[in-house]
Fold:
Amino acid sequence: MEREDILLTMQHDVARTLQKPPEKRHWGMLIDTRKCVGCHACTIGCIAEYKLPPGVVYRPVIDRESGQFPAVKRSFLPRPCFHCEHPSCVSVCPVGATKKEADGIVSMDYQKCIGCRSCISNCPYGARTFDSGAYYTEGTPAVQVYEKMGFYEYGKRWNRDSKHGDVVGSARKCHFCSSRIQKGLLPICVSSCIGRATYFGDLNDNQSLICQTMAANQVYRLKEESGNSPQVYYI
Structure:
């Protein structure tokens, strides 16, 4: 029999999890670096989905080269926000603009953020960046309309059409595409991955594809010594 695409399997998993109350969910991610080909489709998809400006990146892919010629090897490490169980970015925020949600997602409140960047300095994974209000098409005859378009994060439409837009001057980060999740969709980095290298789902659901894949492989987490307990795992 033809196997179901894992994207459909994970989307079914998300739909099942949404039937549970938020406090019973535990969203997490698994990245199989053996499948990642360094195409950066996840990075580009994320930029397009959220109209991310210069300097703001939610899903970078670290390109590493090792060995000596002719035995040289390249490897790729996608690095979203790790939505830690004990996020060091939350405790240092002086205004409570960043918090840990009941479903495990670490979120930002742009209306509270004062742009002090303490969270950026205290994230051991470099997963936060700052929105300075720049546009890619600055210095050209006209700033392009698509850079000023609204976008959805945390279930709300946000404005960035001026230097005083809703999110300008705020720290920004990956949020596991929480707006998409609430509609039963997968994070954009998951659905855009050509190698199906990224798994997403409820870590409390042993029947989910992400949990089954983790159980069948040796997984690891980055910088576990930090004590943050990241909820993004790697193979």
